[in-house]
Amino acid sequence: MADLYCRGCGAKIQSTDPGQFGYVPEHLLGQDSVICQRCFRMIHYGRHELGAVKADQALQAIAQGLDWASGVVLVVDILDFESGLPPEFLRLLGDRELLLAVNKVDLLPAQTPLPEVEVWVRRRLKSLGLSRVDVRLMSALTGYGFPALADAVAELGGRVLFVGVTNVGKSSILERLLTMRIGGGQRKGIKPTVSPYPGTTVSVSQWQGSGLTFADSPGFVPQGRISDLVDAEWAVKIIPHRSLTSHLYPVSPGDLVLIEGLCVVECVEAGENGLLLGFTGSGVRWQKSSRKHLDKWKGKGPAFARWDERTVSLKAGEDLVVSGLGWVSARKAPFRLRLHVPAGVKHFIRPNLIGPKI
Ligand code: GDP
Fold first, then answer.
1. Between β-strands 245-250 and 275-280, what pairing exists: parallel, antiparallel or unpaired?
2. From CA 230, how far away is CA 318, in angstroms rounded?
3. Distance between CA atoms of 266 and 244, rounded to whole angstroms?
4. Cα separation of 247 and 257, whole Å?
5. Ligand 1: which of 172, 239, 282 to mutate, judged by most atoms within 8 Å of the beta carbon?
6. Whose CA is nearest to atom 9 of ligand 1?
7. Cα distance between residue 42 and residue 11, in whole Å
8. Which of 83, 134, 163, 324 would give a disulfide with 226, using CB separation of 3.0 to 4.6 Å?
9. What's the rounded Cα separation, in Å, for the pair 137 and 114?
10. Measured distance CA(49)–CA(232) in Å, rounded
11. Are 153 and 69 in contact (CB under 8 A)?
12. CA of residue 167 to ligand 1 center, whole Å
């Protein structure tokens, strides 16, 4: 019998080991279109079993997909933009032209002007040295931007591969495209498995569209995202699922602005009338406190064994991004801050994404 692959996550189907990807009980084999037990339980019961695909397995699958593809759609999450473009992942993509699908724009505050966000994205790409990139803003949740994406995808040739770091919405975008004319209007049947947990797609899985073939790939596992260092329950709290929340604090030296157990921003120096504006998903709790309570706040939450301390300078109108969590934006004045994050978590400084640009 020819090898079968799970239609949800791309894993090779097997009936010998329920503890490995691709398991289907033997009596369910033989159907034309099969889905593995892990995807079935994820879709029907929201259960997350067997953990995430391993980073090296994902890498191998992405490399195979790139050899096969005539065009590549790179998906990033607007809320975690920098973490979606790690240099080692971009090296893997080489210098081929990319269509950048900037997903989850529905999570930006409602009044955010999207044309300004697009300008911001283009400037960020330029500063990251990425020039051969065509940009589309979109939301797989609401359908925003899909007609424009479909037109751009149609230009990519007959074999279109979706790549990106884990959890940015690759499977969700593909699922929606498959329901459109370009995807052959597939409204029923098995779809790519969408889940709130990183690392669900195991291997490249192909889908026949109208005159072209789509392929979903496992997410590249980036280093330094806090959401990948916590267990699945905490990851679901940290990863924004509804519109971002914002928290505005007047801040002076000695003040702490923090997210319990995950990140502390300590003010070392502040310009006059300086404000810090924090953005995250609504599942985490912000606080303002003072230096003497630092250890208490660090001890709450997932309880990391080791923390790093980094001193950073922010100009007014710059964001300090904590990878996989959110950011604080300096308003009205410059700051010198001490950032306390669990060891290994990356941070970035960038021009502000939200609000008037300086
Ligand atoms: P993948 O790992 O890149 O294939 O990502 P998935 O498609 O599995 O999506 C990861 C999570 O993000 C799931 O919880 C999705 O429901 C959610 N998601 C995907 N696209 C969007 C979007 O446009 N907006 C919002 N709010 N959530 C999204």
1. antiparallel
2. 27
3. 22
4. 10
5. 172
6. 169
7. 14
8. 324
9. 8
10. 11
11. no
12. 6
Residue closest via CA to ligand 1's atom 22 equals 104
Backbone dihedral region for residue 51 (phi beyond 0: left; psi -120 to 50: alpha; all else: beta): left
Whose structure tokens read 């978590």? 345
User: What's the gap in Å between 171 CA and the centre of ligand 1?
Assistant: 7
Question: Which 8-state DSSP code applies to residue 296?
Answer: H
pLDDT of residue 56: 73
Question: What pLDDT is attached to residue 203?
Answer: 59
Q: Quote the CA–CA distance of 208 and 204 in Å, as a whole number.
A: 13
**pLDDT value at position 33?**
62
Element (H, E) at 270: strand 263-270
The Cα angle at residue 166 between residues 118 and 186, in degrees rounded to 5: 80
The list of the chain residues with pLDDT below 50 reads none
What is the distance in A from the centroid of ligand 1 to the CA of 79? 12
Q: Report the C-alpha gap between 101 and 173 in whole angstroms.
A: 9
Please tell me the distance from the alpha carbon of residue 333 to that of residue 317, in angstroms, as a whole number.
8
* Distance (Å) of CA 216 to CA 184, 188, 204, 312, 320: 16, 18, 5, 38, 32
Q: What is the largest CA-CA distance in the chain?
A: 73
Strand ordering across the sheet containing 318-322:
245-250, 275-280, 326-331, 318-322, 347-351
- At residue 321, what is the residue type? V
Contact by Cβ (8 Å): 297, 262: no
Output the pLDDT for position 212: 92
* pLDDT for 70: 95
Q: Does the pTM exceed 0.70?
A: yes
pLDDT in tens, 198-225: 556 655 678 888 899 998 888 888 889 9
Domains of the chain, CATH where assigned: 1-51 (no CATH), 53-222 (3.40.50.300), 238-351 (no CATH)
Nearest residue to 148 via CA among 192, 110, 101: 101
Distance 77 CA to ligand 1 centre (A): 9
DSSP for 137-182 reads: E--TTT-TTHHHHHHHHHTT-SEEEEE-BTTSSHHHHHHHHHHSGG
